[in-house]
Amino acid sequence: MGNFYARYFDAVELALPVGLTLSVPYIYWIDGVMISPKDGLWQVGMLVLLRFDRVDLACFRQHILGWLVKGFFLPLMFTYVCQEFDAFLSRGMPALDSFKAAYDYSYDFLYFVDVCFATAGYGFSLRLIDTHLRSTEPTALGWMAALLCYEPFWSLIGTQYLAYDPGHPWGEWLRDDPLLFGIWGSLILALVAVYVWATIMFGCRFSNLTNRGILTNGPYRFTKHPAYIAKNLSWWMVSLPFLGDGGWQAVRHAALLLMLNGVYALRAWTEERHLSRDTAYVAYMSWIKRNGLFRFFGSARAAATWGRARVIRERP
User: Fold this and answer.
1) Which of 229, 210, 226 lies closest to 218, judged by CA?
2) Residue 271 has pLDDT above 60, yes or no
3) Would residue 22 count as lying in a domain?
4) Distance, CA of 145 to CA of 126 (rounded, Å)
5) Rg (CA), the chain
6) CATH number, domain with residue 289
7) Residue 295: its pLDDT value, please?
8) Domain extent at residue 286
9) For the chain, what is the domain count?
10) What pTM was estimated for this model as a whole?
11) Is residue 5 part of a domain?
12) Which tens digits make up the pLDDT trace of 78-127?
């Protein structure tokens, strides 16, 4: 009811007529070349034609869940992109004459790149480029764990229940030690860069709560959840919840951040449970168990045999 999504609706008003027009020849062509054309969209067609005896309810449910994912995340990510772009335009190119200035600009820029790729992922789920949805998270637990981390839910959860930040950022702690300030800030940027790298490797396959092809390249050749690991570690380094005013408050803030880490652990677990329905992901999990991050240094030769970066794809 507010204006948070105003620019998204403006964009939809411009793009929707074009999209609907192009969808007619696109669907006609795709339907003619698909090996298994009775997908979720076909199930919707059977419902429209009142051919209820031909409807596969499980396939239809997956189709609707896929649209709910895009309906929730595309407006949100598009809005984030607009906000970040506005911030860059209003601020302009800063004078990068200090590490702090370079850190601030790089931190914001990395997250801007992240939401750009995320927006592209939700906007371009097309069989034509092999980025379509194979399956969508089917459980309420998986949805709940993911949605808690995003607006509008995070505004409530983050401020009322998981307010882990003591208000003493790392920059204040280290401002009198330029060397340690630079090292600590560089480590934070490295973690954020790994997080963004994980998003970039998906390309137009990026999406929460879905399987759009099993990714095995980039940071995913070292661990199954590089983005979650890097993001959660960066939060510890940025907020320093174990410092604050000391005493029980420091313990409390650290415990709250551990609870947030637990939410991401739950997300990882539900994602693995969903993706394990794909035999390609089961094979990938087995490979990571033998050759992943914690065994990498003793398995350099095995890691090399994984070959060049690749994505296990599904025929359209």
Assistant:
1) 226
2) yes
3) no
4) 26
5) 22
6) 1.20.120
7) 66
8) 72-312
9) 1
10) 0.88
11) no
12) 999 999 999 888 877 777 778 988 999 999 999 999 999 999 999 999 99
